[in-house]
Design a protein that fits this description.
Elements lengths: L8 H15 L3 H19 L4 H31 L5 H29 L1
């Protein structure tokens, strides 16, 4: 497992940017990004204050983080268990549920901000 250990902080940052590049290719991530753009425009038109922007940024990043973790779970499960397996299915479903929970929180927060 040592072959995946980074040598320094800057190498870790390099791999983080590679991860960002890869996650941006995922369909669901691009959909969330499109939704983010729409809500940025709505928040600008609504003249949202600083607190509302902070809430918006936090819930957006929460969705992005959970989608990234969910994608990692799906990749690992698909590699380790290519056959149908109830535990693999549950792991993937639980990962998807976390994204859904955060998406619901996003829409609730944005609904309150924009009303």
């Amino acid at each position: 497992m040592k072959k995946y250990k980074t040598k320094n902080f800057f190498e870790s940052i390099k791999y983080a940017f590679i991860g960002i590049y890869k996650i941006c290719k995922e369909r669901n991530f691009r959909i969330y990004f499109g939704i983010t753009i729409i809500f940025i425009i709505l928040n600008i038109l609504n003249k949202s204050n600083k607190i509302e922007w902070v809430i918006f940024i936090i819930v957006c990043l929460l969705v992005y983080v959970t989608e990234t973790i969910n994608t990692a779970i799906e990749n690992i499960v698909d590699k380790l268990e290519p056959k149908e397996n109830i535990y693999a299915k549950n792991a993937k479903d639980f990962g998807a549920a976390t994204v859904l929970f955060c998406g619901i929180a996003f829409f609730i927060c944005e609904g309150i901000i924009l009303l």
